User: Fold this.
Amino acid sequence: MRTTLLLVDDHAGFRARARALLEAEGFDVVGEATDGRSGVETAARLHPDVALVDIGLPDIDGFTVAGSILASHDAGHVVLISGRAAEDFGDLLARSPADGFIGKGELTGERLLALIA
Assistant:
């Protein structure tokens, strides 16, 4: 059985690259959302195994989205992503309920699995 995944990111180009990469590595990308509100709604509808959530969304930050998705048990895991380095977020990442963080340039299926295993 393949791991189902929801992509929440406002950049269409990144979503397309991430979808292609992760599907090639065995994930089943079941949905996409372009902002935080639709990400929370889509997670509630699809209940993916993993929600991959950009921290810098246009309406709600990814930390809040991660907390909402996990509090309502709409995804088994949430992993935060950003084009910025982890150090840029200080202790926000450590305090986040998310399972971890991956820089967009470092995204691979292997790294993602290591965080949710």
Notes: The chain has a mean pLDDT of 96. Residues 4-116 form a domain with the Rossmann fold fold (CATH 3.40.50.2300). The longest helix spans residues 12-24. The chain has one domain: 4-116.
